[in-house]
Amino acid sequence: MIRIVPVVTKKEIKTFVQFPFQLYQNHPYWVPPIVKNEMETFDPTKNPVYEHAESHLFLAYKEDKIVGRIAAIINWQEVKEQQKSKIRFGWWDVIDDIEVTKKLIEKVIEIGKNNKLEHIEGPMGFSNLDKVGVVTEGFDEIGSMITWYNYPYYAEHLEKLGFQIEKKYQESKFSFSNVQPETFEKACTVIEKRYGLKAVSFKKNKDILPKVNEMFEVFNQSYASLASFVAITEREKTYYKEKYISFINPEYIKFVLNEEGKMVAFSIVMPSFSKALQKANGNLFPFGFYQLLKAKKESKDVLFYLIGILPEFQNKGVTALIFKEYYYTFTQKGIKNCIRTPELEENIAIQNIWKNFNPQVFRRRRTFSKNIVGLKENQISK
After folding, report:
1. Which of 124, 133, 248, 374 has the fewest Cβ atoms nearer than 10 Å?
2. 94 pairs with which residues across the strands?
3. pLDDT digits (tens, 9 = 90+) for 121-134
4. Cα angle at 269 between 264 and 275, to 5 degrees?
5. Which residues, other chains included, contact 154 with Cβ-Cβ below 8 Å and sequence gap of 6+?
6. What is the rounded distance in angstroms from the CA atom of residue 123 to the CA atom of residue 121?
7. How far apart are the first and last CA of the chain?
8. Is the CB of residue 291 less than 8 Å from the CB of residue 280?
9. Dihedral of CA 206/207/213/219: which sign?
10. Those residues with Cβ within 8 angstroms of residue 69's Cβ, 6 or more apart along the chain or in another chain
């Protein structure tokens, strides 16, 4: 018999967070999160997303053994302001038993119907800066600190339960040796003169922090036209600043400013922490923090985490200024591989940015959705 149990207390949330550590124990490609940070994600006193969102966590038990977990999420900003009648599900992990998945999904649908929502989509987090999608190709590639990993049967479960593919994402990588500076150096001179722009690099985090809020505003404007986008609020800007900036080498953050000093574009790259997180195994102490610091200084792989360009400057070659700065930085650091985190396959503009570097898609992931209007209690498919 499968029991679905709500997760409420701090102890239960820790159990919820730690379940994947059992499911993927010693898995060569799964990258564990830091348990403390993951728990804070579900703490309304820490995570400002709860100002306009809610979550309901559940664990699945079979013969008193945990066999699955899921988070039901309602982003009310998305529902009310964008008129998207959607309940999200995320943090979904499960053994290869479709009945467990069915019971977990039924709880999410129940919450969705109780809130008069019309469809369910996932896996996805609270916002666009959270992890997204189930892996459908590329299971033999290591994950990252900002992506979920899963077994191949995850997508099979959803398809058998009548879910349809909603969004398609891809991850790609290219060797830094593919980057030829002459492809963008000539363009830089023209772009700088034509638009009065300049790229700015940093050596200290304290010099970056005063402009982080402006950076997130550029981010909001850059992606506003995408159907899946939910803008980041002022409190969330502060939250993400504190959560991520300390993990990023200051020289890996680049801004492009106009003559008045206003930001028109930015890019954030971070070292790959995948191997360090595997060694840390969810704990910062006693040795996890050391592993992360070591990776921050020595990793030869980098992840292109975020890039944003104001709409009026898109398709004007602004990325050439950014790449020129990164070329010098990566050369000094001895970087070998550049990895792109999940990007919507429909986002042709972002893909065109990288076309001269011969990127190779190494993983694909999907979100799945289903209409829940008219479904009866404890029923997923008609």
Report:
1. 374
2. 68
3. 999 999 888 999 99
4. 165
5. 92, 94, 134, 135
6. 7
7. 23
8. yes
9. negative
10. 7, 16, 19, 20, 57, 58, 59, 60, 91, 92, 93, 94, 104
